[in-house]
């Protein structure tokens, strides 16, 4: 397990523990106490990290889908694209590892409050529906050029996310962003060779 995974487990455990404490109250009327400022802040941080992870994984999976589309349209590019695609698949997996489940710290009178599903690293159908896949150009060079642009855009999104990422996840994002920039270079400069 990576240190990012361990940190995520600790955050998830702390959030779950804080949420469990929210339900504990010594009053006999069964009303739940209001969460403390620390509990609300822990929930806010966990939600922000979960949203960041979801965006990063969605971006990486979108790029992976683009690789698959180009490979399906141009099977002759497989020797060149397969190692890069494999790397993007590993990035998508690494970016999603250690995702946290956020349990709201808001007090409610009903015990039917459920954990938030927004922390899941798996994009939902609505997330995928918003970005319809672009058609792959018939010319292999044009397809490589567009794939390079997609790799560069994903790299830029990961770089922009560094500003709000926790330190360990920021290091992972920086590494994936650098790899994406290298892929973009290999896809464009390598096409000239």
Task: Please outline the helices and strands.
Elements: H1 3-22, H2 37-73, H3 78-96, H4 125-129, H5 140-161, H6 167-192
Helix pairs in contact: 1-2, 2-3, 2-5, 3-6, 5-6
Summarize the structure.
The protein is an all-alpha fold.
Describe this structure in words.
The protein has 193 residues and is mostly helical. Helices cover 67% and strands 0% of the residues. The chain is built from six helices and no strands. The chain has helices spanning 3-22, 37-73, 78-96, 125-129, 140-161, 167-192. The longest helix has 37 residues, at 37-73. The chain is elongated and about 65 Å long. The protein starts with a helix and ends with a helix. Mean pLDDT is 77; it is low at 101-130.
How would you classify the helix and strand content by structural class?
mainly alpha
- In helices, the fraction of residues equals 55-70%
Unreliable stretches covering 5 or more consecutive residues:
101-130
What's the number of helices?
6
Question: Helix and strand string, N-terminal first?
Answer: HHHHHH
Q: What is the rounded distance between the termini?
A: 40 Å
Tell how many strands the DSSP assignment holds. Answer: 0
Strand content: under 5%
How would you describe the shape?
A: elongated
**Mean pLDDT reading:** 77
Q: Describe the biggest sheet?
A: none
Radius of gyration: 21 Å
């Amino acid at each position: 397990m990576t240190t990012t995974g361990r940190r995520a487990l600790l955050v998830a455990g702390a959030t779950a523990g804080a949420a469990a404490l929210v339900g504990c109250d010594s009053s006999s009327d069964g009303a739940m106490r209001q969460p403390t400022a620390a509990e609300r802040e822990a929930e806010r941080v966990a939600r922000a990290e979960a949203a960041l992870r979801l965006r990063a994984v969605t971006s990486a999976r979108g790029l992976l889908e683009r690789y698959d589309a180009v490979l399906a349209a141009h099977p002759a590019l497989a020797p060149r694209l397969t190692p890069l695609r494999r790397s993007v698949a590993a990035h998508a997996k690494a970016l999603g590892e250690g995702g946290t489940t956020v349990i709201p710290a808001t007090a409610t009178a009903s015990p039917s409050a459920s954990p938030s599903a927004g922390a899941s690293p798996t994009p939902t159908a609505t997330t995928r529906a918003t970005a319809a896949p672009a058609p792959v150009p018939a010319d292999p060079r044009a397809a490589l050029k567009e794939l390079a642009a997609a790799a560069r855009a994903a790299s830029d999104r990961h770089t922009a996310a560094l500003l709000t990422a926790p330190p360990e996840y920021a290091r992972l994002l920086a590494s994936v962003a650098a790899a994406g920039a290298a892929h973009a270079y290999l896809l464009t400069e390598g096409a000239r060779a």
